[in-house]
Amino acid sequence: MCNSCVLKEYPDRGNTCLENGSYLMNYLGCANCHQRDFVLINNKSSDDDDGEEIVTYNHVCTNCDHVIARHEYTFSVVDEYQEYTMLCMLCGKAEDSISVLPDDPRQSAPLF
Prior knowledge:
- The protein is mainly β and 112 residues long.
- The protein is built from no helices and 5 strands.
- Strands 1-2-3-4-5 form a 5-stranded antiparallel β-sheet, with no helix packed on it.
- β2 and β3 form a beta hairpin.
- The mean pLDDT is 89.
- It comes from Nothobranchius furzeri.
């Protein structure tokens, strides 16, 4: 992983969790070949560990195959919520939780 290729290491992305893709707004350019081009996804793998899906891959420079960052995305169902996390030097860090029920109990208005 290369901190010279990114504008900010692990930017806070709120609840935006990417399973695939790259956050190019945070990409300065390749520190190895000094080009700013597309970022490729390399060595993508998906594992299922006790009901938790883990997707990992590398962001690499199109021109010289320099590894820019390692991306990790997780998905799991805990109680009645879908839990998402993302951790990547380029794409940032984020967490999200969505109810599997039609109406999210956390969003209900108090009766009194």
